[in-house]
Amino acid sequence: QVMKKSISILATLLLTFVCMLLFLGAAFADDNTPFQTAPYGDGVMITKYGGTVSGTLVIPEKIDGKPVLCIGRNAFSYEKTLTDVVLPEGLRTIRERAFSLCVSLKSVKLPESLQTVGRGAFGFCESLPNIEFPRGLRHIGNEAFFGCKSLKSVELPENLEALGEGAFNSCYKLQRVILPEGFRTIEKRAFGECGALETVEFPGSLMEIGEEAFSGCRSLIHMNLPDRLRKIGIKAFAGCASLTVIKIPKGVQTIEKDVFNGCESLMNVVFPDDLETIGNGAFNGCKSLASVCFPEGLRSIGKESFSNCEALVSVKFPDSLRTLGDESFAYCKSLTKVVFPDGLEIIEEKTFYNCFSLAAVVFPKRIQRIEARAFYSCLSLASVDFPDGLKYIGDGAFTRCRSFSRMVLPDGFETIGREAFYGCNGLAIVVFPDSLVKIGDKAFHKCTLLKSVDIPDGLPTIVAKAFPENVQINVRKRSMRASAETDSEGEQ
Q1: Residue 341 near residue 366, CB atoms below 8 Å
Q2: How far is CA 106 from the centre of its chain?
Q3: Residue 412 · residue 434 · CB < 8 Å
Q4: What pLDDT is recorded for position 463?
Q5: Among 54, 79, 332, 471, which has the minimal tally of Cβ within 10 Å of its Cβ?
Q6: Mean pLDDT of 45-66
Q7: What one-character-per-residue DSSP string does 72-118 give?
Q8: Among positive and negative, which fits the CA dihedral 73, 76, 79, 82?
Q9: How far apart are the C-alpha atoms of 112 and 93, rounded to whole Å?
Q10: What is the three-class DSSP state of 30?
Q11: Sign of torsion, CA 435 440 441 445?
């Protein structure tokens, strides 16, 4: 019995010893493999690298007999001495920031099985000069290659379905981009700030270019926008300083805000026939744009849309135009002539502010108001014919139009704002209608050639402040009709 008990104890000790050996063996194996993994579908995901990589990293197809299907978040991020990566066939997904900040990485071999490159997966891999994408790749995440400043060329694969926001943003040496046929949308900032980018080949299938998609691409010279394109987002090509010619395809009905802002070399724009709206600042700062031909059907030109177009000489608007935004042609210093459409009723604030060469203006028949500083400092504007419907000229509307010599306001006109003709030192003759009800403070100050004016009776005493002290003010009686209208307005 004692012997049986001893044998039992010995067996127990032996079993315990074997288990300890197995445990230690397993622990030893884990300690000696650099890859830490987690279950992922039918295989594993590499979650972390246990050591420091120097030079080339070859990731095996299997770990512990299971296929490697995924590289996890941050798995190899900030490995400063990693220079080359060979990824295994069977790999499907590279997740967020997996190789981000690997600043010495010079080559990556992507397997044909790869389907997804996650957000920031290769962000700031600043030594990576090129990368070949597998044909089965379907998704490139947001900022996937952001800041890869050595990357020179990108040819996206034919099965790609999605290119994330900022995917290749700030790839400063990127020179050429080829997008695959079938591709439909370029997301926000996808190629923004790629300062060396010269050529983009768009597929015929492309329908949308997102906000700031190519903003800051200062070297971009060649691109043909495809016929199926329907939307160009805000600031999509802003700051593309080398772009010379743009033909906007039929079907784009709105040119969004600041789309071509700062395209300094842009000389020619071809608008589609069905264009309806040009957004705020759309062509602001296009210094080489000498002429524009607006399509019939255009209804709205936004604020600052052609401001600072220094080479622009003349503008003729389509009859369909109904809105012309504030400062839309401000600082167009070469502009000499403007012909307005008859349907326009208001000229907004600072529309032609500091257009020094503007000498001829043909106002629309239906115009009612010229708002504040609309023609401020148009030094060459010698005279204008104000249509019968005009009722209001705003503050500073014609300030410093020093070539003005004669001004006749139409019957029915009512209000002149403060400093409206301030500094028009060539103005010698002014004719006021009986319908006039207000002249603003200093409206005609610094009009050195103006010696006398006839004004209708009944104006407020403040009218004296409208003219310089040396101007003789003669008061005349209004016509019976004008007096009746003035009395009626006073009763209301």
Answers
A1: no
A2: 33
A3: no
A4: 73
A5: 54
A6: 91
A7: -TTTTTT-TTEEEEEPPTT--EE-TTTTTT-TT--EEE--TT--EE-
A8: negative
A9: 11
A10: helix
A11: negative
